[in-house]
Amino acid sequence: MSPRNVGVVIVAGGEGTRAGGAELKQFRWIAGKPMLLHSLQTFMAHPRVIAVVCVLPMRYAGDPPPWIFQCDVDRLLVANGGRTRTESVSNGLDDLADEADVVLVHDAARPFVDTATIDRVIEAVERDGPAIAALPVVDTLKEVDAGHRVVRTVDRSTLWRAQTPQGFPRRLIVDVHREARARKLAATDDAALCEMLGHPVTVVRGDERAMKITEEADFARAEALFARPA
Predict the structure, then answer these.
(1) Helix or strand run (H / E) with residue 212
(2) Cα–Cα distance between 64 and 33 in angstroms, integer?
(3) In CA terms, which of 1, 54, 105, 172 is 20 to 30 Å from 180?
């Protein structure tokens, strides 16, 4: 039996303005339940997970929507979102159980994360250190100038699209966030913080269904994707 030593930080602290609407993107229903609840329940069901911290906007952290408790409340914590994604993750790390030796950071905007991807990330962390789910780029990429003219075709053979979860040894990611605060560094994900501070990051195969919901049109695409057989 593998130990239950994985802590999860689900980042749901943003306002999701690009998705439009009065309701927070991460609270909107998709495929039969609120977006955030999909990933929350998936991680809660994983046998390695000891605790999940949901990072919510400050105005909701003290009074979360009641559906968030449709899981094991003894392993659920809620933390305040910060001014940036980096601050939000740092707040979530502060609340994780001491027994969590491995930390997974996941975006609530990717509701359809699957158990196989979670397994691959955990295995890579325990073998190699920091690791992220990602997919190889299959489209031809063009670099363009300010006038939208093609400057060059970019070699895609070494390019991958980052997804979440991203996984880290607990001590390392805590130290990375501490140093990032001291040096006033910020990044779009935690793997980038590791890169800035000289820590190598491994890529493992993600999943096409784990798309990120950013704009209004993404909701319809995600519903259609969810309806397809896995």
Answers:
(1) none
(2) 15
(3) 54
Task: Tell which wins on pLDDT, 149 or 186.
Answer: 149
So what's the pLDDT on residue 17? Answer: 46
Q: Classify 229 as helix, strand or coil.
A: coil
Q: How confident is the model at residue 21 (pLDDT cuts 50, 70, 90)?
A: low
Backbone CA torsion sign across 160, 162, 167, 168: positive
Q: 126 in a domain, yes or no? A: yes
Residue 162 has, within 13 A of its CA and on its CB side, a CA count of 15
Q: Evaluate whether residue 154 is within a structural domain.
A: no
Q: How many CA atoms lie within 13 A of 199 on its CB side?
A: 25
State which residues form the domain around 98. Answer: 6-133+162-227
Token pair 């495929």 is at which residue? 31
Residue 143 belongs to a domain: no
The C-alpha atoms of residue 131 and residue 168 are separated, in whole angstroms, by 7
Q: Is the dihedral of CA 41, 222, 87, 198 positive or negative?
A: positive
SS3 54: strand
CATH number of 114's domain: 3.90.550.10
Per-residue pLDDT of 66-118, as tens digits, reads 999 888 889 999 999 999 999 999 999 999 999 999 999 999 999 999 999 99
Report how far apart the first and last C-alpha atoms of the chain are (Å, whole number).
Answer: 27
- pLDDT tens digits, residue range 32-58? 999 999 999 999 999 999 999 999 999
Q: pTM for the complete prediction?
A: 0.92
Residue 28: inside a domain:
yes
How many domains does the structure of the chain reveal?
1
